[in-house]
């Protein structure tokens, strides 16, 4: 049962739903930092 919870399709779908906005934040943060450090 635990294996199904951690390796099932639903788990990966939910994880992608959660991690998507977090990844977008990190991409935006990296772009902002790169722009800021290049301008300085």
How would you describe what is shown here?
- The chain is 92% helix and 0% strand.
- With 40 residues, it is mostly helical.
- The model has no long low-confidence stretch (mean pLDDT 93).
List the uncertain runs.
none
* Rounded average pLDDT: 93
Structural class of the secondary elements? mainly alpha
Q: Using DSSP, what is the number of strands?
A: 0
What string, H for helix and E for strand, traces the elements in order? HH
Give the count of helical stretches: 2
Short descriptors:
40 residues; 2 helices
List the helices and strands and how they pair.
Blueprint lengths: L1 H6 L1 H31 L1
Task: Give a quick rundown of the structure.
The protein has 40 residues and is an all-alpha fold. The chain contains 2 helices and no strands.
